[in-house]
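Subject: for your reference before the review

Hello V.,

The reviewers asked for a structural picture of the protein, and I figured it would be easier to keep everything in one thread rather than splitting it across files. Below is the amino acid sequence we used in the manuscript, unchanged from the supplementary table.
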Amino acid sequence: MSGSQRRTSCFFFRELEGLQVTSISIASDDKLVEINFGEYKLVLRFYNSPNGLLFQHDELISSFKKEKPLSPKLKHEEKGTGIRAQLPMLGKWLEAELEFRLKQQKDFDLVEECRGFDKRLRESQQAFVYSRKNGLLLAPIALQSLTDPFDIYESPSKAIEFVVHNRTRQSSLKSKKDALLHKLRSALARTQKALSD
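And here is what came back from the structure prediction:
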């Protein structure tokens, strides 16, 4: 590579270099792929950031996209203490919901609470669609931390279809509105220039 050429490659998860893959599994109820390397496990997910999570003996040690690798000090501080350390794939709304629920309790075991919360999320057969000012919010459980109106769907896939359809329609309306506003602003600018002349 010459000095004038730009470097186009980047390396992640160097801990896995030279290791042999022992097994690969795909979760049946989630968009997750787990690649095992003995003491290391790489989890790939296709619905949220970070997209790649590296575990060593079931402890999160680094991630790809949006989150920087955890420093040894931070790993020590977060190990077994924070919600994010226990459930690294939890979205911000569900994390806020669990925090809200924990604040209602005086004494609790965070590890057990996180396990129970994760179990409720995975076993839920319903879906809740909240109507918020900035759009629809889809959740697998009722969110006690929100006061917005919501609809309950007995079929999660029907709820997903509704949310996706609604967001697509809103996006289409916004595109049409933006195009019309652009034409109006152009016409206004021409009229103002004519008046000025």
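For the response letter, the relevant points are probably these. Confidence is low (pLDDT under 50) at residues 66-81. The CA atoms of residues 187 and 194 lie 11 Å apart.

Happy to draft the paragraph if you're swamped.

O.
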